[in-house]
Amino acid sequence: MRIHLAVPAALVLLAGPALAHHGWGSYDAAHPVTVNGPILSSKFENPHVIVTVQGSDKVWTVTLAPASRMESRGALAAVVAVGKDVSAYGYPSTVQKNEMRAERITVDGKTYEMR
Amino acid sequence: MEHDAPAIFVALEQSGFAAAIRQSRWLYPFANVGHILALVAFAGAIAVMDLRLLGAFAATAPGRVLGWARSAAIAAFCGLAATGSTLFAAEAGHLVLNPVLRLKAALVAAGLVNVLVYELAWRKSVVALPPGARMPRAARIGAALSLAIWVAVAACGRSIAYF
After folding, report:
1. Assembly ipTM
2. Are B142 and B118 within 8 A, CB to CB?
3. Which residue among B23, B24, B98 sits closest to A20, beta carbon to beta carbon?
């Protein structure tokens, strides 16, 4: 049965680079960023609502809260809709380029906590 | 970065089925909670089987304890597979590149190979043993391996979201 230990060991070696976009672990909390701009696309889905925002320098993918939490905080689909101006404060991903996880967002003068 | 993933997993994530899971308010949380509940049931059933094979509850008849626990483990595993597939499908293109998910998949495969060895080589003889009888050495090694593998699978599962 010792042979079977070689199976996971071999597959671990085949494993590619890290890539995931949830949890707070892969975000750099030491270097928070604020992205201001219009929402270009919005996916009000589980496990996380995701919007893309035209920042001053580049387009950011901004990961928000799960859909049900967004709704309970009042950040409805209509709030994070395409064309809305948003200010998102959060942490850049250490894994995925131009992606951030928002701690809070402000739309139409109202701030919504994502955590 | 989905383009780094094998096409079949990207296609799965982009399918109507996966979109329905993501867009439903309750389906993803339901699968998430269900996966944990199935894990609890599976861990309990597996622990009973493995501990019995290791020599615990020695006064009991192995056949009766192992038979009940085995049925519970199979049912719980079906629940794990169903809820796990749901969670996986929603983000297949991303998750397939996650190193912890890959490790978990490999460990599940190893765990199932270990189950197969038990089923084919040991089950018939150990369930026929009387209460108090010493289990074959290989069956005890398999049981210890099983406990280690499934605990590692659970730890990987919880860690996927952090890598």
Report:
1. 0.75
2. yes
3. B98
